[in-house]
């Protein structure tokens, strides 16, 4: 802690004066000599157990210990940018900002302290660098009636009052939206997170437009980005190919530039890894069983230190693939976050955190909903076709499985955006067919014939077969594989988790007995295979964007034509800053920021591989390419350097057939589809929307008309939500 200049008169001041009383505020000073060479931030604790300057967040002399357990704490870190450092921002500039903050008064406050900054600084012993004994640290929360206390997060021994990590806003400002989250000064209208001056400022609007340009957003996508940037809870939906994932990427980019921390979650591992996020289970700290537990059981987990920290570190929660999120899952997650972050007299959905939800309810539905009772956690019995019974709490109906049927949905008061412009399909006739199927409208004889007639552009032997059932997919792939006489080569994936201690919320990943709740567990559903089997002559599907300019992207199809012996000079390696660094031997140069980590994992894959050969694939677009192992990385944590979760594997799978579920998000050029066994609403639409052109798809079997119809509850929700919006625009 930096030395403070305090004279004798100040030490005799009345430091126990009631809140708001006029008392002499001593002057804080800080020089460059006080700052350790290793310090990256200056943490300024204005209200806490021991006010002062700190140069680390965690640790015995860290700022976290000074604000934890201190109600209405006030603290800021400088530089304000989460990615900035003292050196990058200029030491003198950073010191000046820190001193100005510690010495500011309520009259000139621009930090959003809520009039709590004047006369509230206790006077420590001059020059002390240690906090006072623990016995003398009496948290203010102890003097507050239990029913009025702020919710708590646990320490190693006992619960502590809530803090929100390295942010410049107090709990009341951050979660209760009393002050603008951008300027931390102006009060906001109830339910808003930005003040009017900030929303309309040129700087803010320019940032939004620049982000939209970077991601090539069309006007309807820009509207969604603007609503999220303004701090509203937003629901974005639309048909496949309308750019929902592109908006998600733009939102993440803009929020990071606004120094806001966003967490992306999805209901399945495949969906989460596709958008660089994590599963809802991992984020909430749920085991498989706890995810089906009672509200009381899941709320108990909210007070676990690691879970609470994940919640409190989140400024914006992004939930992708919402159609597969069960209503009770959404209710459980919101209840946990309420428990962790809200005050008992001011409960808010998701603890007041901003929520951005994307997905299409006309696609895949929740899998196996209503396994247990939301109230007690007991197993439900399906005594009727669409009803699930708990002896103590009554019946749950299948129609209530959708996320929008959760009471949380209405409480979020979403701004709704429906996307219409389809960018994946370039064929107008095909787009019309897909629109009809998505809406459950009957196809004309001409349209059905266009789907089912053999098309010259579809090579049946090379085509990817899509089926709703995994058993049929396995039979197709196994039969083709067994027909090949070439040697079988096997490749085992390499999973890794590089954990940094400043991400304690992921510490349990290192404990083998807790893998069911660790980040590594999400890799079990990774798009890369656990064990990959390859043979010369087999059809394969590429699972990575290998070379976009050459058309080698996720979903590209081809055939293994040979195998190449692994050679040191051809191993993928990290690109360096040297201008002479070039791929002289045709090796891959890894250029992303985690390139050295990725290169190490690929070398580890090589050391462990039984077969020391890379597959060579002739793709259907004519390009022949050696396919090396790829390290797929997900960054975890809010503070750099991030913890890294990875799977390293050759990014191929058997390419004769895949399930419709696994095809979600892919764009395929040569597809044969069987739809007669579709068993869930949205499956037919997901399968048919995988191709860009009608000339690239043949439908062998069509589902019955009843199975093409969308869920009636979803249909009613969409009409009520978006037709009402159109009516409101017409009358305004």
TrEMBL record:
Q: Which molecular-function annotations from GO does this UniProt entry contain?
A: 5'-3' DNA helicase activity; ATP binding; hydrolase activity
Region feature (Disordered): 143-169
Q: Which residues form the DNA helicase Pif1-like DEAD-box helicase domain?
A: 227-368
GO terms for biological process, alphabetical: DNA recombination; DNA repair; telomere maintenance
Question: Catalyses which reaction?
Answer: ATP + H2O = ADP + phosphate + H(+)
Enzyme Commission number, as recorded: 5.6.2.3
Question: Which Gene3D superfamilies does the record match to this protein?
Answer: P-loop containing nucleotide triphosphate hydrolases
**Annotated keywords:** ATP-binding, DNA damage, DNA recombination, DNA repair, DNA-binding, Helicase, Hydrolase, Isomerase, Nucleotide-binding
- Top-tier EC class: isomerase
Pfam families, A to Z: PIF1, Pif1_2B_dom
Q: Which cofactor does it need?
A: Mg(2+)
* InterPro entries (alphabetical): DNA_helicase_pif1-like_DEAD (IPR010285), P-loop_NTPase (IPR027417), Pif1-like_2B_dom (IPR049163), PIF1_helicase (IPR051055)
Keyword Repressor found: no
What residue spans carry the Basic and acidic residues bias annotation? 146-160
Q: Provide the family line.
A: Belongs to the helicase family.
Q: What is this protein called?
A: ATP-dependent DNA helicase
Species annotation: Pseudocercospora fuligena
